[in-house]
Amino acid sequence: MCLESIFEFARKEVEKQKHYYDAIALTNTEKVISAFRKHQVSDFYMKPSTGYAYNDLGREKLDAIYADIFGTESALVRSQFVSGTHALAVAMLGNLHPGDEVIGATGTPYDTMQTIIGYPERIPGSLTDTGVAYKEVPMTGNYVDIRAVCSAITEKTRMVHIQRSCGYSDDRGTLDVASIGRLIEEVHKIRKDIICFVDNCYGEFTEAKEPTDYGADLMAGSLIKNVGGGLAPTGGYIVGREELVYNAACRLTVPGLAGEMGATLGDTAREFYQGLFMAPHVVMQAVLTAIYAAAVFRKLGYKVKPLHSEIRHDIIQSITLKKAKNLENFCVAVQLNSPVDAHVTPVPSYIPGYQDKIIMAAGTFVQGASIELSADGPMREPYNAFMQGGLTFEHGQLAINAAARLIGPACEKRKVKAMGDIIMEGEKDKELLQACENIIKSQKLYE
Predict the structure, then answer these.
(1) Within 13 Å and on the Cβ side, how many CA atoms surround 107?
(2) pTM across the whole model
(3) What is the pLDDT of residue 68?
């Protein structure tokens, strides 16, 4: 099997779909520009603040811009969110009280969301630990079982949790926003006061509309994923109905002070603004990278999800690599072809919030930023690699090509004796070849 012909096939498949995603990027860029113009963004709003940061006009202006872009009453955009998981936790813990009930409408959630909920294991400070009841409704394939969700609603139901992205699931796919909208419509038919809360991580700007355009009451995500555009160095956001965002802000800072405080340190204001401006384009670079990866590894005989021909609703690409060594080597190839820490060897290890050992490749400018090209996966069968991000499609191609050369076809048995000879097949750069050999040696020592 000729790898170069596979790469050419994948490039052509990307070109077939590019016009569709270019149109979405144009629509979302127009949305961002319109909000910037409406709020008269100037250099003045990109200055740092200190201390309590009362009356931080740049921070307040950015909140208003996010609310406009997502079509909501209010927004809370802060560097004080340490991750998307933190933003999700604040949104839920700020709006749920002892005796309330949450329904998980999209089956088993992502590993770190399980620690927020405190299910299946109760974690100190989690929802179940504070007296909130939780029940889960499995999805039917790639679809939410709307009838089952509505049947599960009781007088105590306060929130329906909807995870847009597939997470580490082998079974479910990522939800499109129209499907989320249908679920929200049916839930609100039963009771308008039920909070339909969407975990929007990895999904922003992949479609022309967002879940809040379809009636989501509350939504949260990370700034070092899609909406940060590869420039935001940290942070998260919450958008939604004004009272719900206020409740979350009281949980983040202090009851009564809510979103009126929180310093914008250093150059983060400019990075938040500029990252948001870049985000619609950058997200589509990540989508094209994911399509390319799906086409390459499908041709090599591996199960991929979604297929390269399927419409995308987030930036994640799952590749079932069948063997632990394949997953490790996939991450090695991504790391080796990263702009930062290319010399580092990713190895599986336990990470707080996850049930299994996780291997991660993330040679990123912002630590852990999954809008930049990264790959990770739990060390459990069937050894899925979850690849996401890519600030440029060109970079994505280099890393995926390297992974394909290293792992090879699914049906082919091969012994990797000289990783460098495979990754850099046909190249003469001795330094890169030596780097590959050093990684092999490091792996052997680790094993």
Answers:
(1) 20
(2) 0.91
(3) 98
